[in-house]
Specification:
By secondary structure, the chain is α+β, with helices and mostly antiparallel strands. The chain has 21 helices and 15 strands. It has three domains: about 150 residues, PCRA, domain 4; about 130 residues, no CATH class; about 220 residues, Alpha-Beta Complex (Lambda Exonuclease, Chain A).
Length: about 550
């Protein structure tokens, strides 16, 4: 059910498409994924391949695979795009039935229990009182975090003579007079994953291939799969050792360990026995008790225990990125399509952001070029030589021909960046400075390219790789972004900003433009944030965004 909801929220993203196809609802195998990948042309996205029915023309796809893709194509036609719902409970039950998920679960073992589990999940989701699917999935993610890592949530420990029951993660940084650590003989949870990733080897898979229907499937795997699995196991054991250390060092006076006699491999008891064998002096600190002592019946004569209180502050706080706000300011309808409906950029724009690198008309991605140039500038400010900074930034490109194109495209930009030194702007104190600040009750997330300080005064600089002759127009366009940076910096640093500037790198020193301060602009930014929050909180549809757009143009 969660795979279905994640796909419905972002139906154009390959990760969620593959996750849904891999689910029992479609049952596509890893071999099926490899076949689809071979059929995909470079310029065709997976979503387009399915939604536009291009797969129907591929003879290399067998009928079961075509049937699964046809079914997903029908899902696109029936369920995409998702629109905010007045009754999320009714919508989810309808999705559960109409998608065929309920019928599929009826064919499984323990079918009634499986269906009841999904229905319980739907009831829980309906309690969130939101018609926004994006917000609903955020709530699910937060629930999962709290369930798996509840120890990392902030709690207020009740004082007094009482027992606190908590996970090892939750106990970090705390100490208690007596600590009980049970079930030491339990081994670490095994990893049964069939897909693994290693930064050196990259992707490795293990799967079962049916060669003869009368025999068991043959297990096959990538050459490096077992090596990666062994390495992951070693890392898990090391993590278990670190967690054991945290657990035993929470005790001030006494540590009580309980276990059965037979220890699983790599369990905490196994680690303890090995440590005692290697270091005989440990035995002098351990008093072994093979039987549980008998005590008189305990009677409660104190105050009623008050459970720890979960600190839920900011748990469900709304957030916007600076890019979202800029899109909303300039085109609320595009914001609705991109961030509310979740339509990918290449479906919204006929042309991608591309840059010519010279007379040979090689084309590179403008977005990727910007990322590489920003990284190179950051490294240069941190003391790298210019060539070293460029080489390090270009390391994200694997293809040598592609890397050569980007190197050519960034050559002039980096030489122009060095011209900033001639302007004597001051000392760089931050590069690519990330921030998350609260403005009008909303978390604003962004990153400032460059912060310099001179004589105690701070100057914010945003680097732009845009290709345009009308720099005045671009300066007006990006001014709201600089004001958002100013508001964030002043709130975080508790220091006033003295100057805001844009550096259009293609124009060299002539592309350095400062923005004059206007107090009303910050008020306008606050009003924009409040308007965005209000529209999202009320699950506004496209018509509300159109009305806002019309009002903003008056």
């Amino acid at each position: 059910m969660l795979s279905l909801l994640q796909w419905l929220n972002r139906p154009w993203e390959p990760l969620y498409i593959l996750s849904l196809l891999r689910s029992p609802l479609f049952g596509v195998t890893v071999e099926g994924f490899l076949t689809i990948d071979q059929c995909l042309e470079e310029e065709i996205s997976l979503a387009s391949y399915i939604y536009e029915g291009l797969f129907l023309q591929d003879e290399s796809l067998d009928e079961p695979l075509k049937s699964a893709l046809t079914k997903l194509k029908e899902f696109y036609e029936s369920w995409v795009p998702y629109t905010p719902q007045k009754s999320m409970n009714a919508y989810l039950y309808d999705l559960f039935t109409a998608s065929g998920l309920k019928a599929m679960l009826l064919l499984q073992r323990n079918n009634i229990q499986l269906i009841k589990n999904v229905e319980k999940l739907i009831d829980v989701l309906a309690q969130f009182k939101t018609s926004s699917l994006d917000e609903l999935l955020k709530q699910i993610k937060q629930l999962a975090v709290l369930s798996d890592k509840e120890g990392e949530a902030e709690v207020e420990l009740a004082e007094g003579n009482m027992v606190h029951i908590m996970t090892v993660h939750a106990s970090k940084g705390l100490e208690f007079p007596i600590v009980f650590l049970p079930d030491l003989a339990k081994g670490p949870r095994g990893d049964t994953g069939s897909i693994r990733f290693d930064k050196d080897v990259r992707l490795a898979v293990q799967y079962k291939k049916e060669i003869d229907l009368l025999k068991k499937p043959v297990e096959k795997s990538s050459p490096a799969f077992n090596a990666i699995k062994a390495r992951s196991k070693d890392q898990a054991v090391e993590e278990a050792k670190r967690l054991f250390y945290v657990a035993v060092t929470r005790a001030k006076d006494y540590l009580v360990l309980s276990t059965v006699a037979k220890a699983a491999n790599d369990s905490w008891y196994d680690m303890l026995l090995n440590a005692m064998e290697d270091n005989g002096f440990l035995q002098t600190y351990i008093e072994e008790c093979l039987e549980v002592p008998e005590y008189e019946k305990w009677e409660d004569s104190g105050e009623e225990y008050q459970a720890p209180v979960l600190n839920e502050e900011n748990l469900n706080q709304m957030s916007f990125s600076v890019s979202e706000i800029m899109t909303f300011i300039n085109d609320p309808l595009k914001y609705f399509d991109k961030y509310i409906v979740k339509i990918e950029d290449h479906w919204l724009e006929e042309k991608t952001n591309q840059v010519q690198t010279g007379d040979n008309y090689d084309i590179v991605s403008g977005a990727t070029l910007g990322t590489i140039v920003h990284r190179a500038c950051e490294l240069f400010d941190h003391g790298y030589e210019l060539d070293e900074a460029k080489a390090e930034a270009l390391a994200i490109i694997d293809d040598e021909i592609e890397k050569s194109r980007f190197e050519q495209a960034m050559e002039g930009l980096m030489n122009n960046y060095r011209q900033l030194e001639e302007l004597n702007l001051g000392k760089a104190v931050e590069n690519e400075w990330p921030f998350t600040v609260e403005i009008e009750g909303v978390q604003i997330i962004g990153e400032i390219d460059k912060i310099v300080e001179k004589n105690g005064l701070f100057h914010l600089i945003d680097l732009k790789t845009n290709k345009s002759k009308d720099l005045d127009k671009l300066t007006d366009y990006y001014s709201p972004q600089l004001y958002l940076y100013k508001m964030a910096f002043e709130k975080e640093y508790q220091q006033k900003v003295d100057c805001l500037s844009l550096f259009f790198m293609r124009a060299g020193k002539a592309g350095f433009r400062s923005v004059a301060f206007h107090p009303d602009v910050e008020k306008e930014m606050s009003e924009v944030i409040k308007a965005m929050a209000n529209l999202k909180q009320n699950d506004a549809g496209k018509s509300e965004y159109i009305n806002y757009y019309k009002k903003s143009k008056k």
